[in-house]
Write a structure and sequence with these properties.
- By secondary structure, the protein is an alpha+beta fold.
- It has 2 domains: 2-170, Bira Bifunctional Protein, Domain 2 (BirA Bifunctional Protein, domain 2, 2-Layer Sandwich), CATH 3.30.930; 178-213.
- Helix content is 21%, strand content 32%.
- It has 4 helices and 12 strands.
- The chain has helices at 2-9, 61-75, 144-159, 164-170; strands at residues 17-20, 23-27, 34-37, 42-49, 81-83, 87-90, 93-103, 111-119, 178-181, 189-196, 202-206, 209-213.
- Strands 1-4-8-7-6-5 form a 6-stranded antiparallel β-sheet, sandwiched between helices. It has a 4-stranded antiparallel β-sheet with strand order 9-10-11-12. A two-stranded antiparallel ribbon has the order 2-3.
- Helix 2 (61-75) crosses helix 3 (144-159).
Length: 217
């Protein structure tokens, strides 16, 4: 992400990306989680767009970008699901993570930076709470170069989706099922995943009834 921001500062146009052949300190939503990627084992890159590139800029960009990853995998014959708020799953295993940050500047709305890490080969033990998956598990054999070239058109299609909420809900992991949800500053609770609201918040029915959750996992 730092390299993509440097590209933008140097005048690179929106739609530019920074691609890492090796990742040693990839960041997630939480500072204590560091993601590593060996050469050829993952596709890790950050791309930035102007908000106007999103057909529905009010909907969570992390989910819109995740939709693009799902569309890409479906084009390869592999059904994928979105785990709210920013992961892509295959067969109940995480294969991709997305981190979105808005960068404010003098231009209207700034830019939206989306960092992505996609497991092409199942990573070794990195202390994950649950074992991750990979595209190789689904029978796909892609180099990072091949994956990036074939993914980009699907990201563009997702950004141009006129109803990303509906498209994401159809692919929402565990929709209609009971899950455990951890909320900031609260103990984990159990409830049923009902869907997404117009901004991309999770509609979760817990002990207190239906609520729209903006942060958690």
């Amino acid at each position: 992400m730092d390299d993509a921001q440097a590209l933008e500062t140097q005048g690179a146009p929106e739609g530019s990306l920074a691609w890492a052949g090796v990742q040693t300190a990839g960041r997630g939503r939480y500072p204590d989680r560091v993601w590593k990627g060996d050469p050829g084992a993952s596709l890790t890159f950050t791309v930035f767009w102007a908000p106007k590139r999103f057909r529905d800029p009010s909907f969570a960009p992390s989910l819109t970008v995740g939709l693009g990853v799902c569309l890409w995998l479906e084009s390869l014959g592999v059904p994928a699901q979105l785990k709210w708020p920013n992961d892509v799953y295959l067969a109940d295993k995480k294969v991709a993570g997305i981190l979105v940050r808005q960068r404010w500047s003098s231009s209207a709305g700034g830019t939206i930076h989306a960092g992505m890490g996609i497991n092409l080969i199942t990573p070794g033990d990195q202390g994950f709470r649950t074992p991750p998956g990979s595209l190789a598990d689904a029978g796909l054999s892609l180099t990072p170069e091949e994956a990036l070239a074939s993914l980009l058109p699907w990201l563009a299609q997702a950004l141009d989706t006129d109803n990303p909420r509906s498209a994401c809900e159809r692919r929402l992991w565990r929709r209609g099922q009971e899950v455990e949800l951890s909320l900031p500053g609260a103990p984990p609770g159990r409830g049923v995943v009902r869907g997404l609201d117009p901004q991309g918040r999770l509609l979760w029915e817990g002990p207190g009834g239906l609520e729209a959750v903006s942060s958690g996992e």
